[in-house]
UniProtKB/TrEMBL annotation:
InterPro entries: NAD(P)-bd_dom_sf, SDR_fam. This is SDR family oxidoreductase. Belongs to the short-chain dehydrogenases/reductases (SDR) family. It comes from the Bacteria. One of its GO terms (molecular function) is oxidoreductase activity, acting on the CH-OH group of donors, NAD or NADP as acceptor. Keywords: Oxidoreductase.
């Protein structure tokens, strides 16, 4: 990522969510000009000098293309964080409905479209981080099996795109958060455990914070991670140990 400056741009999709907002704040504090893109952002929102806020619908190819064209005119893009994600309930025995198809469009195809569109605008030394989920490793998420599948597919896409973009000097990695104290994982925990507490399975004995995830994203984007390519960093407090 080199030396951040207001002329260097970082893009964060899902920037209005709990983890996304923490990533936006952390990258802005480093001196990057951050473009926060989210479907929850009001049309025409502008933000401030450090953070530009734009509405983006990852299920709409025209919305993505218009966003990329605008972002490319702002400066040199050095970082992309595909953080946008939604969850939809569906068991392995159910026929996937429209909500599940939308989830796949956002969680997987949206990230792939953003990567393919932004990568040609990045210079050597650029980096991409895809936010996956520990759900890709939790079979007990039986009521949201395709959410976990979408994240597993995102990790596969991470490895494939990392191999394709590495010769161009662009690194791609993913990060799989565990139970983080944000609304998105509240929904995931409720689906998996109902009213029961999953913390008994977490070796650290607590939930993680969005700031802890943002710190790990900062590392993956930084030059300190220059030899980390196509990896998935699991940040789950030891949940996957059980």
């Amino acid at each position: 990522m080199g030396n951040p400056s207001p002329a260097t741009i970082a893009i964060v999709t899902g920037g209005e969510g709990g983890i996304g907002a923490a990533i936006v704040s952390r990258l802005a504090a480093l001196g990057l000009r951050v473009v926060s893109a989210d479907i929850a952002t009001a049309p025409g929102a502008t933000g401030d000098d450090a953070v530009i806020r734009r509405r983006l619908d990852l299920t709409d190819a025209a919305s993505i293309d218009a966003f990329v064209e605008e972002a490319g005119a702002l400066g040199t893009i050095v970082a992309l964080v595909n953080c946008a994600g939604i969850i939809a309930e569906c068991t392995a025995e159910e026929v996937p409905g429209p909500g599940v198809r939308r989830m796949l469009d956002v969680n997987l195809l949206g990230a792939a479209h953003m990567t393919a569109a932004i990568a040609p605008l990045m210079t050597r030394g650029g980096a991409i981080v895809n936010i996956s989920s520990i759900s890709s490793r939790l079979p007990e998420l039986a009521n949201a099996v395709l959410y976990g599948a979408s994240k597993s597919a995102l990790e596969t896409y991470t490895r494939a795109s990392a191999r394709a973009l590495a010769p161009k000097g662009i690194r791609v990695n993913s990060l799989a958060p565990g139970f983080i104290d944000v609304a998105m994982t509240d929904a995931m925990r409720t689906i998996a455990y109902g009213e029961g507490s999953p913390l008994r399975r977490v070796a650290a004995g607590r939930m993680g914070t969005a700031d802890e995830i943002a710190a790990c994203v900062e590392f993956l984007l930084s030059d300190q991670a220059s030899y980390v390519v196509g990896a998935t960093l699991v940040v789950d407090g030891g949940l996957a140990l059980n």
